[in-house]
Every structure is written in C-alpha cells, then in structure tokens.
Amino acid sequence: MTKQRIKQCTICKVDFSTMYRVQYKNPKEWVFVCKECLKDVKKDNPNYTYGGTWKK
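Structure (tokenized):
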C-alpha cells in the first residue's frame, strides 16, 4: 500500500494531491495553491509567476 501524498493549499487550507507552485504577491515567495485558488491569484496579477505542478 502506498501512502497518498497531499499538500495543504496556502490560501484555502484544504488538502489536495495536485498543487501549483506560484508566486503571487510581494515580497515574492513560493507557495503551493490548489486549482481554484490558482484561478483567483493569477487573474490580472502582475506579480504572478508559475513554478511548476506538484503531483502525488
């Protein structure tokens, strides 16, 4: 049996098995967000940077 890998979304605090590594505010720091929160932070955001997808 393999352990399912999950991370908690930095914004909504819900656990997900697929996360997106992004920078979206100043000071710029890398955080993991879920797909729904990603839509919110990347829209019209000049500070948004995509850093990759984390999967289980």
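Residues 7-55 form one domain. The chain has a mean pLDDT of 93.
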